[in-house]
Each structure stands twice: as C-alpha cells, then as structure tokens.
Specification:
The chain is an alpha+beta fold. Helix content is 22%, strand content 28%. The protein has 5 helices and 14 strands. The strands form 3 sheets. The chain has a 7-stranded mixed β-sheet, sandwiched between helices. α3 crosses α5. The longest helix is centred in the last third of the chain and has 21 residues.
Length: 289
C-alpha cells in the first residue's frame, strides 16, 4: 500500500488504473456511430465547462466526449461542487446537437442521460440504479438509498452539453457525505471503468437515437415510459424546494410529457414542477433521502 505521505502519481493506486484512451476510441468511434471524438485528460476543473466553452466558440462536433481522470471543480445542479479521488469514478461530458428537434423538447436530454446511465450500469456493473428526479442516480448500500451519480445539462452553441459524474470505486471513508454511495459499495460485479463507460455511452447513443427519430417525442420514443419505470421519486411524498425559496409538498404521481414531476397536493390539486430540489420524505424505501 502506498504510504499516505507518498507523492501522488498515476500508478499510486493500482486498484484504480488510468483509462486506455486507445481502447475506448477503438470501441466507440465508428463511422456510423454518434460518437465522433473522445479525449481523456488527467485533470480539469469541469468537463462540462470545457466543452461548453468550445461549443460557444463554434469549434465542437456533435458526439464529442471529454473524460477526466479527476475533476477539481466539477459542478452539479444549483452550482453544488462534485469532487472525488482521481480515477475513482467516471467524470465525463458529451456534446449533442438535437438539430430539428423542437427546442422546447431539449429538456428531456438530461433525463434521457439518466435512463441511459441506469440502463448501461445495470448491464455492465450488475447494480440496480434508480433515478431521483430530475438528475440523481441512486444505488442501495446496506439497505439505504444513496446518491452515486448526477447529471448536469446546459445549452451551449448550437446544442447541449451533458455531464455525468458516477462514483465507481469510492470506499466508505472517501464518501463526501453520509448520503453518498458508489457502485463498489452497492456490490457491483465490475468496477472496470472502461467497461462501464463504454456501456453507458452505447446506451446513451441508443436512447438519443430513438428520441431524435421520434422528433423528441418522449412518449413515442419510449423514453417517458422508461424514465417512469426507473424513477424512485414516484409514489412518494416529497418536498420540492423551488427556485425563489418557495417549497411544495405532495405525492409524486407522474412524469408528464415535458419531463416535469407532477405532485398531487392537498385538496387533490396536481401541480407540475419543472425545476427544483426534491427531498424524498416518505415512500417505499422509507426515511428521508
């Protein structure tokens, strides 16, 4: 084991080898594939910020993938920070240009990425990954739901940058919060990051292709049904902390055609929520999450 005060280098933790960019490109960059470019950098502030800047300058091709072995200023929703030890997870962003899909339907893209990530991880890691609306990936650790990943989408240039952060091999003493988890702690059959990344990107390519072929119609593409089936927020009493400081409590009953969470509030009113922080108050898993 490397002594705690030893200088860090790319081989200091042999349980966390670096990604093989040549192998990733060979497996993902095909003439008929969505993915057109793939870069792996040792460290960066935020892969989302890097791709968004390139997109705004007009120098980015659709299907560009940027992966970082370490992010020093990773961002989640509401400008929350996202940090983890080097090579302990998957930290990457992709650039997509939905083109003729009506812009009002682009809000489905981060939800699409959630479905793709959950599907890809279930196949490659053997971990049941649930979706917490709108952008969290949940796994079960010692009988409790824990956040193991997050998704952030932002408009840039002629398209949208979608970033994903997934805790893969984080150990219990490395977790940033008691509510956090990782694939390893959830009993993953594989924590090989190349295998996991290929699976998630192939799943994302599939769902993005289906959604675009349906002109962004989440119902016709099957995306709305898939998200609903995997959403751990539904059928629970939740508190939606809304922009501006207001909050709304109700039972989460549906994901509507615009990707909004529909809450059934007191008096039987159904209120769609398009943005906000969701707190699970009660539900099938019990407790606060």
């Amino acid at each position: 084991m490397t002594p705690p005060d030893a200088p860090h280098n790319r081989w200091s933790d042999l349980d966390r080898p670096p990604l093989n960019v040549t192998a990733l490109r060979r497996g993902l960059l095909r003439p008929d594939a969505l993915w057109s470019e793939l870069e792996v950098v040792e460290t960066t502030g935020s892969t989302n910020s890097d791709l968004a800047e390139l997109a705004r300058s007009g120098g980015l091709a659709e299907g560009t993938v940027l992966v970082a072995e370490e992010q020093t200023a990773g961002r989640g929703r509401l400008e929350r920070s996202w940090t983890a030890p080097p090579r302990s997870g998957l930290f990457f962003s992709v650039y997509l240009e939905p083109g003729d899909v009506p812009v009002e339907r682009w809000g489905w893209v981060p939800l699409l990425a959630g479905v793709a990530a959950a599907t890809g991880l279930a196949k490659s890691a053997g971990v049941d990954t649930a979706l917490k609306w709108p952008n969290d990936l949940l796994v079960t650790v010692e009988g409790e739901e824990r956040k193991a990943g997050g998704i952030l989408g932002e408009f840039a240039g002629d398209g949208i940058v979608v970033g994903l952060g997934i805790n893969v091999s984080l150990r219990a003493d490395e977790l940033p919060a008691p509510t956090a988890g990782s694939l390893a702690l959830a009993g993953a059959v594989s924590t090989d990051r190349e295998t996991l990344l290929r699976a998630v990107l192939r799943s994302l390519e599939h769902w993005y292709g289906e959604w675009k072929a349906a002109d962004g119609d989440a119902s016709a593409s099957g995306l709305q049904a898939a998200y609903t089936a995997g959403c751990a927020t539904l059928d629970r009493t939740v508190r939606a902390e809304l922009p501006g400081g207001n909050s709304l409590v109700g039972q989460a009953v549906a994901i509507d055609g615009d990707g909004r969470l529909v809450l059934s509030t007191e008096g039987g009113l159904q209120q769609p929520v398009s943005a906000g922080d969701i707190v699970h108050l009660r539900g099938a898993a019990g407790g606060l999450t």
